[in-house]
Amino acid sequence: MKHFVPxxxxxxxxxxxxxxxxxxxxxxxxNSAFFHNMVKRRQAKKILSTLISSHIQSFxxxxxxxxxxxxxxxxxxxxxxxxxxxxxxxxxxxxxFNEEEIRLMVFDMDASSAPGxxxxxxxxxxxxxxxxxxxxxxxxQ
Length: 141
What we know:
It is a single chain. The protein has 141 residues and is mainly alpha-helical. The protein folds into 2 domains: 7-63; 96-141, no CATH class. Helix content is 66%, strand content 0%. It is built from 7 helices and no strands. It has helices spanning 7-27, 33-63, 75-80, 87-93, 99-108, 122-127, 129-140. The longest helix is centred in the middle third of the chain and has 31 residues, at 33-63. It is elongated and about 95 Å long. This is RNA-directed DNA polymerase (Reverse transcriptase).
């Protein structure tokens, strides 16, 4: 629905604009109080718009940047959380799988299972292992 503006408002606005234009032409360039008030108003408007735009920019910059938080002292956290993984277990968990382990894992998959997120089932990987085996191994390692 289009906004309806009565013709009288449009007429009065145009008349007011033309009155201001006439006033500016008569007293605008003279060194008068009117001229100085207009200059002050324009400067204030410019300063205000600059302040508002800088405030808006800083607000959104702060909003969309991640806070730089760095925790270097973990001693308090380590005292609260129990150590459930021993260092020997941790070394074993962090080891890179060898080629034989990856191949055994692929061949242990159920061949008739539903396809994974890549769209391929275990049957595909078994059938085409000679072609894709080295690619799968390089991705896993």
